[in-house]
Amino acid sequence: MLAEVFDCLGIWTLNEIRRELWDKEEVEGGDIVQSQQPAQDPFSSFISGGFSSAESEEDEVELEDFEESEEESIEDKSADDLGENKYIDELQPQDKGYRESVVKAVIDKHSEHIAYATKSLFEVVKDPSKQAKDFWEKTLTKWGTEAAKVAKQELRKASARKKAIDDDEKPNKIPSKRRLRKMVERALENDSGPWLDTYIEGFNEVLDEAYDLQIQPMGLSEEDKVAVEALKDRTDGRRTILQARGMESFKNIKKNRTEQIMKLVEQGVRDRKSISQITDDITNKFKEISDSRASTIARTEAMTAISIGKVAAQEDAAEVVGKENLVKVWINLGDERVRGNPGGLYPDSKADHWTLQGETKDLDEPFSNGLDYPRDLNADSFGEVINCRCDMLTVAREDLESLKP
User: pTM here?
Assistant: First the structure.
C-alpha cells in the first residue's frame, strides 16, 4: 500500500529536485527517474556537478565578446565531493537483529494504523495537489507570455542605439542582465499572493491530517491525547512554518524560471536569432514545461506539508509526555528500489536506507545517516533525500524496551 501511494504521488527526477526544491543548477543525466538510473549508485554521482556557475552582472555585452561560462565537469569531482555522508562513520546503525525485531514489533502492533494512515494521506493530498498543479500549469504558461514581452522590450532597447529595430531583426547585443532580471522578476511577482492563498488553503488540511496520524502509534493515554489536542489548538507554529514554506517555494520557483528566461535570451542572441524567434522560444518553452513542472511542484509541496505536520505532532507530544518517553523509528518499503538493498537496484548506494530499516533514535538525535527524519531538508547529502520513499514512526519507548539486545 505505501509503495503504491508514493508511486501515485510521483517519483522526481534529480534535476526536478535540484531546480524546485534545492534551488540548484541542472546537471547532465539528471532528467531520468530513479528507476532508470544506472544501478551502481544513481544518487551520488550527479549531485555535486554544476553547483557553482556564478553569473557575472556585466551590463550590455557585445556579441563577439560573449562567452559561455564554464562549469566544472562531474568527471573532475573527487569521491569526497559526491555526496558522502559525514555522519556515517560517527553514528553506526544498530545491530541488524535488533533492528529486525523493532520492525517486526512495530508492524505487528501498528500495521492496521500504518495502512490506514497511508491511505488517508493519499486521499487528503489529492485535491490540494491538483489545485497546486492547476495553479502552476496556468501560471507558468502566463509567465512565458509576460516574460516574452519583457524580453522583446529589452532586446529592442539594447540594439536600437543607432536605428530602430523591428522584431524580425537579429539583436547584436545582450540586454543588461541586471535590468532584464529585475524586469522579469517584477512581472512574475504578481502571482505570489494568489499562490500563497492556494497553498495555505489547500495544504492546511494535509498538515492537520499528518499531525493527527502521527500521534496514533505513540500509545498516549486519553488524558495525554486531550493535552496534545489542546496544545495543537493553541499553537500555530506548524502553520507559520507552512506559510513560510509557501513563500519560500514561490521565491525559488520565480528565481529558477527567471534564470531560465535569462539563458533563453542569451542563447538566442548568441545563436543569431531574431527578436521574434527569441520571444517565441520563451513562450514555447514555458508551455512545454508547464505540465511536468507543475506536477513536480505539487508533489514537492504535498510531501513537505506531510513532513511539517508529522514533526509538529512529534514535538507537541514530547512536550506533554516528555521526549524521553518517545522514540522515532526509520521505516523503508523493503523493496528492490530501496537504496543500499544488497539484492536491489542500488546495492552500492552511499545513501544506505536499507541498513536504516528499524533504526530507533531519541527524538533529538539524528539517525545514523545524519537526518532527523526521512527527506530532512537540512541533509548534508542530497543523495539521502532524492526520491526517498521512507517514513518515520514515533512510538512509545516502552513498546521497544523488551527488544534491547
Answer: 0.70
